[in-house]
Amino acid sequence: MNAHHGHTGPRGTSPSGNALPVSTTGFADEPRITLRGPAELADALPYTLGFHPTDSVVLLALHGEHGRFGGRLRLGIPRSPDEWAPVAEQLAECLVEGSERRGSRPDGIVVFLCQDPAEGESGRRVMERLRPFAQKLRTACGALDVPVYEALCLSGGRFWSYCCPDSDCCPPDGTVLTPAGTSVMAAAAAYAGIHVRGSLRDMEARLRPRTARTTVAGQERALDTASAELVHRILDTRTCKDVRDDTIRLARRLLDRLAEHPPLADEGASDTRDDALITHEEAAELIVGLQDRRTRDRAAEWMEGPEADHALRLWRALARRCVGAYGEHAAAPLTLAGWVAWSTADEPGARIALGLALEADPEYVFARLLHQACNEQLDPETLRECLRGEREARVEAGVRRAFRTRTAGRGAGARGVRRRLRARVGRPRGTGQDAPSTGPGRSAGASGPGARSDRRADLREPYGTRDGGPDGAASGAGEADGSDRGNAR
């Protein structure tokens, strides 16, 4: 760090201004990057998150005498100062306990408060307004015996240190941030192939509902109609499977449609074009259908390869169509977007989508589980294996049903041939019964295998004769018997 707060720095630093070497996780071969002072620390923030945070509080754990980067947390800055104290305590506890679960308690924490000035407000005014929040964060971390080495406010292209009282070192009007792409961190990120995705605000805009009045009115009418037509069918055990199959088939058609139109270079233009490819009615039917957990879990199987790219575009487009009173419905497509992003190694995008899903519905369990797993840096392959297994089981069940149906059909055909032959040649001699012959060695009351197959097929008909699923296979075992296997609650 710099000399201005060497007394609060990690072990091994000194007031003379020795540099703080930081080993940044996520880079190839864990390169050692030396950050010299708060300016380079502020510049490093977007590279540790994968995007430029806006209106955010970020806590970054440091480990060891050289201040190795560890876990990090980001949260929107609470609007009410009354929330600052409890939020500060929760953030500090979450970061420390999360680091301990991963095997290493932090030796220190760096705090960032990032907020652009409002209209007519200066960056310095933002810094002063957030100073009490910074102090509560320092106090909360100190209460857990983890010191805050540095607390920075980033606003209006400048930064301020809450830990440095020296106006000569840290001027009251702040210090201009390093130009983008010119720092040691930027060079290391470019070498490792890591890119900053843009601002948090821009990334969230791709997932938030559209606000154009005509779009909102038309989409909300379509959602009203779809809800009236589908909700009671989803809740009815006699018709819910048909709705699931229809929803997956519609999603498959929309995936294929998006695949025919590759994304554009400009993200905003690409999203607008994707929106135009999906009608209000199609979006509404799919949004309502995805409120069913089993349907959502089947849709989550589109998680790998080119299919995942198309699915991510679809889930984003659906999230943008959850307008008006249907904002809570966005939890399902947002969670699917977060899952696909995490499955394809886009952790920043996953955290943002899952965070918005929980904003839409704080009790949405699938989003909570994925968000926690993503934050704890678990391997998504475990869930991928589970979803692959569900798909394979569904395919196998479809093959078995198709085989039984063909067998039953052959039995019925053989009986038809025998009936026609008997009609031509008459009843066999020596038979005093009115019932047709059942063949040698069988009584007239015995049932042949064909008859049994017919009865099983008739019983099975309402539950297992429609095709569906991502790969066109029949719906899987476990649906007819009402089991919840594979569903997140």
UniProtKB/TrEMBL annotation:
Skewed-composition ranges (Basic residues): 416-427
Biased composition (Low complexity): 428-451
Compositionally biased region (Basic and acidic residues): 452-464
Polar residues composition-biased segments: 11-25
Residue ranges of the region described as Disordered: 1-25, 406-489
Origin superkingdom: Bacteria
InterPro entries: DUF4192 (IPR025447)
Official protein name in the record: DUF4192 domain-containing protein
Species of provenance: Streptomyces somaliensis (strain ATCC 33201 / DSM 40738 / JCM 12659 / KCTC 9044 / NCTC 11332 / NRRL B-12077 / IP 733)
Lineage: Bacteria, Bacillati, Actinomycetota, Actinomycetes, Kitasatosporales
